[in-house]
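Researcher: Here's the sequence for the chain we discussed earlier.
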Amino acid sequence: MNRPALIALEDGRVFEGRAFAGEGEVFGELVFNTSMTGYQEILTDPSYHQQIVTLTYPLIGNYGIAPDDIESAAVRPSALLIGECSRRASNWRARSTLAEFLEAAGVLGIHEVDTRAITLHIRSRGAMRAVVSTRDLDPARLVEKARAWP
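Model: Thanks. This is the structure I predict for it:
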């Protein structure tokens, strides 16, 4: 899996990426997190419910998913945006890769995204509504969908 994806914001800005987990179209409030570790805890933290989370650290997924580090019973964000997804989990505690974890939860994972540009954009303009899609790749239509999301 490595299909094209678009991230469209309600203010008209559009970013490109590629899906490493899941497919479809999801909506949420676009936010960012600058942590260097803890992606599994972020993904299972209830405070990220229905948000599209951007992680600024360049490589995510390198230590995989360990059952003992799960914060709640579900993956909370509607999508995860990262720079690069590690293909292998290098941790004796890991039971799955990040991609496998997101796939099992039905959550869209997008990489090859300029996460620092997204972070700078929403840091200066505030969190905003967004849509992430691997199905509809028309930027103008996606911006309108983001604006229409309640």
